[in-house]
């Protein structure tokens, strides 16, 4: 039975990427060797790394002479402390828009003073705070562009004089924004780019090397940049599959074209949430995420009935995060519109049966 995969992460990737990746596990480009057994210093893998880095820069429209792309390990969670190690001198400004932001705040607190500009914790993070001003004297401003768990997304970014660090784990490569506004972008691969194991970091070289503290080698962006992400063994398979997904994205027409599709999927999903009296959206309308739509049943007693309809339709991973409950439709780049239509149909079927 065909599955419709709404998992929040790890999550759906393009079918053709799965095919190519599985072929490369058996035999990489007719070399007689598996991607899993070649040296990361081999010509074949160095080419994979170069390609992945240059495709990432191309999709983000970032100039190669100003930005460095790194593929690191430790997930986005490692970047909470790593970004602070590299940029925090004394004080930084953070926007608290969800559980991941809060974790970033906690880590940065280990290295300096963290000023939380604003927080939406008062309403279980169902909106993005907008009224705040970032002081001029901070070392950097940190924000989370898309709040995977709560289904909110920043549509505007504040005016700021300091460098901007952004956790883009769940919406990187999904919409056409001015990425050059950011000085450090990081994203765990497993939400819109590839399998778990690699973390993409795009860093503006000019904002590095300004802190006095000693930085452990493995946490130093400059060390990894100097070795072109080969300071130690990179997560080769994850980088390879990420490269395949970035190639796929280019073939789709790039970020601008995929944004159009993402918008069509989100519009279809939210239209049904708003139309159907049995459902209610969780996030404030103006802050709704194009990637993760969160919603609840208005009558909890219909839960088993709806869950059965979803199972019958082949829908996977629609359950909400435990801190929000209800449902979450994660509609990453590789998810076809058809899958959204299947969920919409199940919602309409529930209305007929109820
Ligand atoms: C999933 C996620 C993380 C955590 O990523 P790991 O790679 O598991 O550390 C951090 N931030 C956001 C926005 C996420 O969606």
Write the layout of secondary structure elements.
Layout: E1 4-5, H1 15-26, H2 43-60, E2 67-72, H3 75-87, E3 91-96, H4 99-108, E4 113-119, E5 141-144, E6 146-147, E7 152-153, E8 164-167, E9 184-188, E10 199-204, H5 221-226, H6 236-251, H7 254-275, E11 279-281, E12 292-297, H8 303-312, E13 315-316, E14 327-330, H9 337-353
Parallel strand pairs: 1-13, 3-4, 3-5, 5-8, 8-9
Antiparallel strand pairs: 2-10, 6-7, 9-10, 11-12, 12-14
Helix pairs in contact: 1-6, 2-6, 3-4, 7-9, 8-9
Pyridoxal-5'-phosphate (PLP) binds near residues 188 and 191.
Structural write-up:
The chain is about 35% helix and about 15% strand. It has about 350 residues and is of the alpha/beta class. It has two domains: about 15-250, Aspartate Aminotransferase, domain 2; about 255-354, Aspartate Aminotransferase, domain 1 (Alpha-Beta Complex). The mean pLDDT is about 95. Helix 1 (about 15-25) packs across helix 6. The two termini are about 25 Å apart. The structure holds pyridoxal-5'-phosphate. Pyridoxal-5'-phosphate (PLP) binds near residues 9, 75, 76, 170 and 191.
């Amino acid at each position: 039975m065909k599955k419709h995969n709404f998992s929040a992460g790890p999550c759906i990737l393009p079918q053709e990427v799965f095919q190519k990746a599985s072929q490369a596990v058996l035999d990489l480009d007719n070399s007689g060797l598996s991607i899993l057994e070649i040296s990361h210093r081999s010509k074949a893998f160095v080419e994979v790394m170069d390609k992945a880095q240059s495709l990432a820069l191309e999709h983000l429209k970032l100039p190669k002479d100003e930005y460095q792309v790194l593929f690191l390990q430790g997930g986005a969670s490692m970047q909470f402390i790593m970004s602070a190690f590299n940029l925090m001198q004394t004080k930084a400004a953070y926007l608290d828009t969800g559980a991941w932001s809060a974790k970033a705040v906690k880590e940065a607190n280990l290295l300096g003073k963290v000023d939380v500009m604003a927080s939406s914790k008062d309403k279980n993070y169902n909106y993005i705070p907008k009224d705040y001003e970032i002081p001029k004297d901070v070392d950097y401003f940190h924000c989370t562009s898309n709040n995977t768990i709560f289904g909110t997304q920043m549509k505007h970014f504040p005016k700021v004089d300091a460098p901007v660090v952004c956790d883009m784990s769940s919406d990187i490569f999904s919409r056409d924004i001015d990425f050059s506004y950011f000085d450090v972008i990081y994203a765990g691969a497993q939400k819109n780019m590839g399998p778990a194991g690699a973390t993409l970091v795009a860093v503006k070289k000019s904002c590095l090397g300004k802190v006095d503290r000693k930085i452990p080698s493995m946490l130093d962006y400059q060390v990894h940049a100097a070795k072109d992400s080969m300071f130690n063994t990179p997560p080769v398979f994850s980088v390879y599959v990420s490269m395949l997904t970035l190639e796929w994205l280019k073939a789709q027409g790039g970020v601008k074209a995929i944004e159009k599709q993402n918008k069509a999927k989100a519009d279809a999903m939210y239209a049904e949430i708003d139309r159907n009296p049995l459902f209610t959206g969780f996030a404030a309308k103006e802050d709704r995420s194009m990637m993760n739509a969160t919603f609840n049943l208005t009558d909890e007693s219909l839960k088993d009935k709806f869950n059965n309809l979803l199972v019958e339709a082949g829908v996977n991973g629609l359950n909400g995060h435990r801190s929000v409950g209800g449902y979450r439709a994660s509609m990453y780049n590789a998810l076809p519109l058809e899958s959204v239509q299947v969920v919409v149909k199940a919602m309409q079927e529930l209305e007929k049966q109820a």
